[in-house]
């Protein structure tokens, strides 16, 4: 279908669902247990209400900001998500092409279906990537990958260390479809086709997690990481104010945290980022000035993006939306996804009476229903 005829992210997901394989759909759509956190991630944004101000000149609207010291066109990023080539042969590089005109960041998954070199090939000068790390039990594999990323520091400007999934969550849609269709397009450089397989099969998620270390700790892992890269570290998957506070103690090595419950794919009934943002505001607001706080999970509308920014998030990530964009229309589908999100974000800012990202604050929202 003509991508321009699709007006919102749900419509794009609907088209992608029809076009991708059953196995791909099940892997992308799936979340842990009863999918409560996955649904709530999105629903919670409906509970936060907007407080538009009138008689504000809204001719201009500027979505640009800075992330980790880099200028970006929009405070949106692509969350790391494995196996983009399950959806479309353009894969993770297709996502890079699709977002290039928006000046958005892209975090490449440890379990991407293309190598980190292939993904940045042909990207625009100044287009910025992060690389997401799942520390492997065999540390030498992760060390070798970090060495490769360090060599591409003109493109890869930060490392995202994911902490919320030391083991995979129980994703029943994925498990049910484990034997459907083709084998995985694995070639991230970490995972290879000749990788030892998880005995007894399992869904895509369980196969990908085989080999991932479950013994990470604040001190030992960050010290180890400091020996293997000088790139700034972003910790992903924090879900409490206690952990956000601890992370801030590791500045400046840790430059940002991502409040995330892994799109509801790890621990079901874990809190959405909105709740964690509110906790941090209440118990340790100084975190916001020590490190950047990013969020992901459940973002489908520009109003969701704006509400997260009002609550203190510096950047907002999309996981499934980028994958479904790719599945619906390849590079063009990703482009359309970001075009919609950007236009909706601008409309929301204008109707709220905000000219620029730094104007957005708590005064633009009512959070009574979520407190
Ligand atoms: C993910 N996510 C993820 N996170 C991560 O750190 N490393 C990874 O390899 C993956 N892989 C992955 C695959 C798929 C198919 C999905 C849907 C998600 C989680 C991802 O980064 C992000 O936290 C969520 O996707 C955000 O929620 P939404 O935007 O999908 O609702």
TrEMBL record:
Its main location: mitochondrion. Residues 169-204 are annotated as: Disordered. It is found in: Mitochondrion intermembrane space. The keyword Ubl conjugation does not apply. It catalyses: (S)-lactate + 2 Fe(III)-[cytochrome c] = 2 Fe(II)-[cytochrome c] + pyruvate + 2 H(+). Its cofactor is heme b; FMN. Keywords: Flavoprotein, FMN, Heme, Iron, Metal-binding, Mitochondrion, Oxidoreductase. In the C-terminal section; belongs to the FMN-dependent alpha-hydroxy acid dehydrogenase family. In the N-terminal section; belongs to the cytochrome b5 family. This is L-lactate dehydrogenase (cytochrome). It comes from Hyaloscypha variabilis (strain UAMH 11265 / GT02V1 / F). The lineage of its organism: Eukaryota, Fungi, Dikarya, Ascomycota, Pezizomycotina. The chain holds residues 103 to 473 of 494 of the full protein.
